[in-house]
Amino acid sequence: MNVGIDLGFYRTKVITMGKDPIQFVSAAAKPHDSMLNMNGHTNVVVTSAFGTHLTGEEAVKFDPGDTRQEFSDWILTDKFMSLFYSALGRLTDATQFTVNLGVGLPIADFERYKEVLKARLLGRHEFTIQDRYQQVAKVESVRVLPQGWGGVMCLLLDDNGRVVNPDIAHQRVAVVDVGGRTVNYLSVDGLTDIPAESRGTRRGAWNVVRELRQFLKSSYPDLAELPDHRLMQAVTERVIYNGDESVDLNPVVNPILDDIGLEIVNTARQYWGNTAATFRKVLVIGGGAYLWGETIKQAFPQTVVLPEPEYANARGYFRYVTAKMRGQ
Asked: Taking a C-beta distance cutoff of 8 angstroms, is the pair 99, 139 a contact?
């Protein structure tokens, strides 16, 4: 099974052939059982050598504290592995299966952690999802890509790993990958990235959450203690509830988005300089594309926001792995 996984700091996204894209909140916590659950949702509890963790949306409900990670070496944690197993378990209920895996790392972390991540994920993994029987996944190959390359692979390849847009191989293309923790700026020329023009920053969508929390501390102090994932949802919907009162967040959130959007554009111009005019396309991917895609397009008219931008990296990793398995 060829699999592309984007283990983001906000959400985990998973792509494989023949299945709808999967995503869930990148949260893991100590498991708890509700006395009564009328929603019909199955809590995804993962048990492995790395412990037992409740993963996804339910983890935020039951443990709103330390469920979100935002540091580079979180790939070394037990929770990271539980999220990885949760992703595999959501793809298949087979007792034994093999995986050829494509994953990504932020550009700023790539050189330091690429071999570490590869070694951590390669090999045999045993885990149990909820009350399901034990599953054994043999990860036969791991290809680690810098984040942003998934967007390029989405244009270059189809789901069968075949080249469908050969012109990309001879063009200069840029990618702005806006995630929760990081923004990655990738410059690619003829399918080779240009290190001097490819950088990553730590100012992603979580910064909106931090500034929203400061507003809530002064105006709605009880809401200021909500977990980050809940506040991110409020940012997306531009509304939050204080009891029965609907609080319009547009006056608060929009200036923050404008400020960060301007920073993203200015940072791109700083990294790319005059070469920005030579890019045939500027691809915008990641969940932050919904927040800042239009802002980036105003600065760079050749901008293309990829369809389902939150899945672009995972989909690109999957297509890249599929192409490699075909020998391309």
From this structure: yes
CA 160 – CA 172 distance, rounded (Å): 24
The vertex-40 CA angle with 134 and 238, nearest 5°, equals 110
Q: Which domains does the chain have, with CATH numbers?
A: 2-33+42-166+308-325 (3.30.420.40)
81, 60 contact by CB (below 8 A): no
Global confidence as pTM: 0.90
- Tell whether the torsion through CA atoms of 292, 295, 296 and 302 is positive or negative: positive
Residue 295 class from Cβ within 10 Å (0-12 exposed, 13-18 middle, 19+ buried)?
Answer: middle
Say yes or no to pLDDT of 33 above 80: no
Please check whether residue 184 is in contact with residue 147, taking contact to mean a CB–CB distance below 8 angstroms.
yes
**What does the DSSP 8-state code read for residue 41?**
P
Tokens encoding 224: 């200021």
Residue 216: closest CA among 235, 191, 236: 235
pLDDT confidence of residue 41: 56
From CA 210, how far away is CA 89, in angstroms rounded? Answer: 32
Query: For residue 199, what are the β-bridge partners?
Result: 185
Distant-in-sequence contacts of 213-217, Cβ < 8 A, 24+ apart: 215/252, 216/240
Q: Is 247 helix (H, G, I), strand (E, B) or coil?
A: strand
pLDDT per residue as tens digits for the range 295-324: 999 999 999 999 999 999 999 999 999 999
SS3 104: strand
Q: Which residues pair with 124 in a beta bridge?
A: 138
The pLDDT, as a whole number, for residue 70 is: 56
pLDDT(64) > 60: no
**Which two structure tokens, joined as six digits, stand for 277?**
């005019």
The residue type of 327 is G
Per-residue pLDDT of 94-151, as tens digits, reads 999 999 999 999 998 999 999 999 999 999 999 999 878 899 999 999 999 999 999 9
Q: Are 255 and 152 in contact (CB under 8 A)?
A: no
